[in-house]
Structure prediction request, 244 residues.
Amino acid sequence: MRDIILDNLEFIQKKITACCLQNHRDPKEVKLLLATKTVHPARIQIALSAGYTCIAENKVQELGKKYDHLKNSPHNSHFIGHLQSNKIKYLLQYDVGCIQSIDRLDLAQKLNQKLKADNRFIDILIQVNTSREESKFGVSPEKTLDLVRQIALLDNIRIKGLMTIGLFSTNKEKVRECFRLLKNLQLAIIKADIPHVSMEELSMGMSGDYEIAIAEGATIVRIGTAIFGARIYPDSYYWNETRA
Ligand SMILES: *Cc1c(COP(=O)(O)O)cnc(C)c1O
Prediction:
């Protein structure tokens, strides 16, 4: 029997394409990144085998547990969860191509140190707290440009853009404001013309708000529930500092 995951993937990809066309954007500009927290490796494998190969985890330990199951299927691995500096050395064991959740200088410095020692480089996005909710991680919008300037000086880290989690709200205009803020920050950083900084990626939009995010310029949408179904754990398990 055909797995529901395949139907969901096709459905979401079609919606992304339609949304791009509606907004006069090239569908190739928007990548579908699968948020796979709590999803069993066998189910992730179904998506990988169907050619949906960009996946993301939130916790280093969970990434590690799934790593051996998935390492023989080619894929691009992103990290989208809150990162503690004492987990960096573990995270770097798992072939992560992009860390989307860098939000403070000391974390970036420790990451850079470790990369330098290993003679490696990594792509990162700067996570911005556009909703200003205390429960959310990310640098404040006011401090983003400064943080980018400082991280840009670290040799082994390549800044590729910005990431945000939009406000959880049924008020679509409030959600849209978060995404528009991230877009405006991107434009301000491009204008500042900082050496070694690329601002090509805007990672914004999840199952409930990716269409708004695409309309506002997202280049990466991170989708979990709409593809793999509801999770047992509440999101606070992944997003709350005290339990992270
Ligand atoms: C879980 C998660 C997503 C995906 O959320 P869904 O609502 O399940 O699509 C996106 N981004 C981050 C940072 C996440 O933790």
